[in-house]
Design a protein that fits this description.
The structure is a single chain. Helices cover 32% and strands 24% of the residues. By secondary structure, it is an alpha+beta fold. The protein has two domains: 52-235, Neurotransmitter-gated ion-channel ligand-binding domain (Acetylcholine Binding Protein, Chain: A, Distorted Sandwich); 239-336 and 382-414, Methane Monooxygenase Hydroxylase, Chain G, domain 1 (Up-down Bundle), CATH 1.20.58.390. The protein has a six-stranded mixed beta sheet, with no helix packed on it. It has a four-stranded antiparallel beta sheet with strand order 4-7-10-9, with no helix packed on it. Strands 11-12 form a two-stranded antiparallel ribbon. A hairpin with a 5-residue loop joins strand 11 (366-369) and strand 12 (375-378). Helix 3 runs antiparallel to helix 4 (268-288), helix 4 (268-288) runs antiparallel to helix 5 and helix 5 (299-325) runs antiparallel to helix 8. The protein is rod-shaped and about 120 Å long. The relative contact order is 0.09. The chain crosses the membrane at residues 239-262, 269-287, 299-322, 393-413.
Amino acid sequence: MTMHYIYDVSLFMLFVSGSFRICLGNLNRSEVENLYAYLLPSAASSTYYKYIRPDVDQSYATNVTTDLHVTSLREVDEMTGRFTVVTFLNIYWKDERLSWSPSSYGDIREIEFPQSEVWKPALTLANPFSLLKPLGSDGNLVRYTNNGDATWYVGDVMQALCDIEVTQYPFDKQVCPLYFRIWGYEGSDLTLTPSTNDVGFTYYVENSEWDITKTEKEVVVNEAAYIVYKFHLQRKSTFFLISIYIPVVLLTGLCPLVFLLPADSCERVSYSITCLLAIAVFLTIVSESLPRSSSPMSVLSFFLVCDFVLATCLCVLTVLGLRMYHKDEKEDEVPAILKKIAAFKCFRCDSATKGDTPSSQTAVIEIKEKSAHEKTVEFEEVTWKTVARMFDLLCFFLSIGACVVLLVVYLMYTNIV
C-alpha cells in the first residue's frame, strides 16, 4: 500500500513539473482524461483535469495571448546587469470545459477560480536575474466567462538580465528585454502571441534616473515559443552632467594654467599635483559606477585616463621648466641651439631688472647673412630664465591644444555634438 502511494505521488509530481509527457497522437480530450484517470486514480476526483490542455482536439496547439502593463521601472544596475521592473500581465486563453449556460445559473456570466484549481499556462520569465520560476501565486485568480474565455491576472516584480552598454555613459541608451515562455510545453502544444495592444503605461510612475522612450514586442519561435518585450531606455543625464561631466571639463581646462604661474612662487608643483589627484578621484568615482568589463568600456573612462596622462605630463614638464629656470649660467651655459631658437622667437628679458651681472649672462648670437657685404647681427642676451619662459609659453599653448582636441574627440564619440 505504501509503495503504491509513493508511486502515485511520484507520477503526480512528474505531471506538475512537465517532465512527464503523454503521447497524444489523435486522441480526443475524453480519451486523454481516461488515460489520466488510469494513471492517477487518486487525483481523478472530478471530470475536470487541470493538468490537461483545454482543447478538445489535443493535436491542435492551444493559443495563449499576453497583454503587458508596466507600473514602474525600479532599477537598472550597471554593475550587475539587473533590470527590475514592476509589471502585471493579462493572459488569455479559451477553456470550453468551464463554460455554462447563464440562464441555468441565475444569469451569471463570469466566475473566478483560484489559479491552483484550474489549468493555466506555466508562463515563466526566461531571462531572470536570479531565480527561474513560473509566474503567479496561489492568491491569483482566473476569471472565466460563460463561453469559456479565461483571463489570468498576474502581477510581479520582474528582475531580468540586461546587457548593459556603457560606451556613451552618462549619455547612454539601453535596450532591456523581458523573455517569456510557457514552461513544459513545446511550440506544437502551445502558441504564445502578444495582444494587439501596446505595452500599457496607464499606472506608470516615472523613474528618477531613466526614461522609457519606446517598447517593442515580438515572438521568437524555435523549439518553444518565446514572446519578447523590449524596453528602450534613455538615461537622465542632468545629475551626471552637473556632478561629473562639467567638473571634469573645467578641471581639464585648469591644468594648463600651471605654466602661467610665476616660477618664483613655489606653487607650480603643488598646483599640478593637485590637478592630477583631482582627476584621479573622478576616475575612481566613474570606475566604481560602471561594470568591470573590458568590452565595451565607457568613453568617459578613456577620456579621464587620457586626462590623467596629460596631467602627469604637465607635472613632468613643470619640473623640467623649474629646473631650467633655476640653472646657474656660470656652471651650465645655454646651448647654442636654444640661443638660436630664443633669438628667433625674440624672447627678450631685461637683465638690469633682475640684478644679474652682464658679464655672466650676456650671450651674443651672430647670424651671418651671405650677401654682397657680410654683416654680423647681435641679439640681446639669452639666459636660462629666458629659455624657461619660452618653454613655459610653448607648453601652455601645446597643453591648451591637447585639452581642446581631447574634449572634441570625447564629444564626438558621445554624439553630443
